[in-house]
Structures are given as C-alpha cells and as structure tokens.
Amino acid sequence: MIQIHLDRVNGDFGFEATDATGHTVRMDSNPESGGEDFGVRPMQMLLMGLGGCSGIDIVSILKKQRQTIESFKMDIGGEREKEKEPSLWETIHLHFWLTGKIDPDKAKRACELSMDKYCSVAATLKAAHASFSWEVSVNGQSFYSTRSAQQLS
C-alpha cells in the first residue's frame, strides 16, 4: 500500500502532501475560493501526474529502441465539465515535443503505447470519461496527431 501524509500548513486550504520517501508537494485552492496561491491546484496536479506518467513511459520505450533523446517537453491542456459538481476533466490535449536522433514513427508508437496501454494516469482519467487528443513533434516538425486517443484503444 502506498502511504501519503497530508498536513494543512498555510491558511485555510494550503496543504503539503508527503510520500513515504519524503517528497513533498504543495497544494492550495484558488484565491477566488479562499486560497492563497500557496501551491498547485489538486485538479492541475492530475494533469501534471499524467505528464510525468506518460513522459516516463515514452522515454523508457524510446531508450529501449536506442533512440537518442536530447530534450523532451510536453504541453498539456484541459477543459473541465461546466456547471457540475464534481467538475471532472472532460477533454485533455497533450503535445509531446522531442528533439534528438529519433525516428518519428518510433516516437509516434511510443506515445500511442503510453496513452493506450501503459500510462495508469491516462487510464484513470479515461475511466472518468475524459476525452484525449494528442500530437507528437520531433525536431520541431509535427508528425502525428489524433483527435481522440480513446479511438485508438
């Protein structure tokens, strides 16, 4: 079992969450709802987790294929459901930016595998009915995009 410890440490909604190895993350609500901008919003943290999870998958897959990754960046955007409680992620778009000696087809396949098979965070968000789209750019050139990664499953 994974253990996370959470303490309220700043104002009404400023929390620090610490994992079993001592890594800490700060969270807060937005100022409009009483937060003090102490940390990241919990729902934004889900998108950050998605980025970290898929990034680990993609880099791992490409390294196994002996691709040389000089840089790896990602932009993630999302829209939440309107006028619903709870307000879940409805649409999520990821753009993977890779540079190096990378075969674009291998980059595309690594992203597909992450989004459709390996990334537990993506699977969790899909189970909550989020719709995904994503694109891959290698060395500044877009090679692949999809309107919905769910269509590939």
How much strand? 35-45%
Which stretches are poorly predicted, pLDDT < 50 over at least 5 residues? 148-153
Radius of gyration: 17 Å
Structural class: alpha+beta
Give the N-terminus to C-terminus distance in angstroms: 29 Å
CATH superfamily of the largest domain: K homology (KH) domain
Give the class-level CATH name of the largest domain: Alpha Beta
Order of strands across the main sheet? 4-5-6-7
- Percent helix among the residues? 25-40%
CATH fold node name of the largest domain: GMP Synthetase, Chain A, domain 3
Number of helices: 3
Q: What's the count of strands?
A: 7
Largest sheet: 4 strands, mixed
- The CATH architecture of the largest domain would be 2-Layer Sandwich
H/E element order: EEEHEEHHEE
